Automatic annotation (TrEMBL):
<keyword id="KW-0249">Electron transport</keyword>
<dbReference type="InterPro" id="IPR013766">
    <property type="entry name" value="Thioredoxin_domain"/>
</dbReference>
<feature type="site" description="Deprotonates C-terminal active site Cys">
    <location>
        <position position="23"/>
    </location>
</feature>
<feature type="active site" description="Nucleophile">
    <location>
        <position position="32"/>
    </location>
</feature>
<dbReference type="InterPro" id="IPR005746">
    <property type="entry name" value="Thioredoxin"/>
</dbReference>
<keyword id="KW-0813">Transport</keyword>
<feature type="site" description="Contributes to redox potential value">
    <location>
        <position position="30"/>
    </location>
</feature>
<dbReference type="InterPro" id="IPR036249">
    <property type="entry name" value="Thioredoxin-like_sf"/>
</dbReference>
<feature type="active site" description="Nucleophile">
    <location>
        <position position="29"/>
    </location>
</feature>
<feature type="disulfide bond" description="Redox-active">
    <location>
        <begin position="29"/>
        <end position="32"/>
    </location>
</feature>
<keyword id="KW-0676">Redox-active center</keyword>
<dbReference type="InterPro" id="IPR017937">
    <property type="entry name" value="Thioredoxin_CS"/>
</dbReference>
<protein>
    <recommendedName>
        <fullName>Thioredoxin</fullName>
    </recommendedName>
</protein>
<feature type="domain" description="Thioredoxin">
    <location>
        <begin position="1"/>
        <end position="105"/>
    </location>
</feature>
<keyword id="KW-1015">Disulfide bond</keyword>
<feature type="site" description="Contributes to redox potential value">
    <location>
        <position position="31"/>
    </location>
</feature>
<dbReference type="GO" id="GO:0005829">
    <property type="term" value="C:cytosol"/>
</dbReference>
Amino acid sequence: MNHGTRTESFQDIIRGDKPVLVDFYADWCGPCKMQAPTLKQLADRIGDKLRILKIDIDRSRAAAQQYQIQSVPTLILFKEGKIIWRQSGVQPLQRLEAMVKPYAG
C-alpha cells in the first residue's frame, strides 16, 4: 500500500477552495459511531459546498500524528489548507452547521 499518494491527495483536498470537515475516528470508538449520522445530516443540509472526509486513525497514523489527534472523534475544519476550527468529542448538528456555514458559502 502506498501511503505517500494518499497523504498527497489528502493535502490536495484540504488545500482546495471548498472547506473540508475532517472526522478523525476509530472503528472501536463508540462516540465516533454516534457522530457519523450527524455528519451525514450535515452533508445533506450543506450539500456540495462542504466536503466531509472520514480518516480512520488506525489506518492513517501519519495524518493522526501530524494533527496530534489525542482523542476520537476529533473534527477539524480546513479551508485552503488552514485549520479554521478544531474540536474533540461528539458535536451536535446545530453546532456543526453554525460553525461551517460562514465558510461553506
